[in-house]
Amino acid sequence: MLRMEEVVSLTFEHMNHLLTAEEWFDVSLPPRKASQTGTRGTWRLWANDAKASLCPKRAQLSLAKLYGHTVERKGPLFRQVDSSGAILANSPMVSYLP
């Protein structure tokens, strides 16, 4: 399981098979804080038809729909939104309030 700060720091570059017809996609992360060996972690996330609200594939599709064609597909996957509702291109979401 990923920690909150690992989730909000995901980038498009961590994702493999983004928005393809596959029933899964891979997430590859750099070595974790607690990693003794320094190896990268790779997780295969499968579509979850039994619980649509928990389906990572549907979440990814919803995010793509939200971003539309205006957000470049590199850098932070989850981005900050300003008070007017604009998506801030190079500002990753944070798991804490500054």
Please specify the SSE layout and strand pairing.
Elements: H1 4-8, E1 15-16, E2 24-29, E3 41-46, H2 56-67, E4 79-81, E5 87-92
Antiparallel strand pairs: 1-2, 2-3, 4-5
Relevant terms:
98 residues; alpha+beta; three-stranded antiparallel beta sheet; two-stranded antiparallel sheet; 2 helices; 17% helix
Order of helices and strands: HEEEHEE
Oligomer classification = single chain
Number of helices: 2
Shape: globular
The strand order across the widest sheet is: 1-2-3
Total beta-strand segments: 5
Low-confidence stretches: none
Which sheet architecture does the biggest sheet show? 3 strands, antiparallel
The proportion of strand residues reads 15-25%
Task: Give the radius of gyration.
Answer: 14 Å
Helical/strand content category? alpha+beta
The helical percent reads 10-25%
Termini separation (Å)?
25 Å
Mean pLDDT: 80
Task: Give an account of the 3D structure.
With 98 residues, the chain is α+β, with helices and mostly antiparallel strands. The chain has 2 helices and 5 strands. The protein has helices spanning 4-8, 56-67, and strands at 15-16, 24-29, 41-46, 79-81, 87-92. The strands form 2 sheets. A 3-stranded antiparallel β-sheet has the order 1-2-3, with no helix packed on it. The protein has a two-stranded antiparallel sheet with strand order 4-5. The protein is globular. The model has no long low-confidence stretch (mean pLDDT 80).
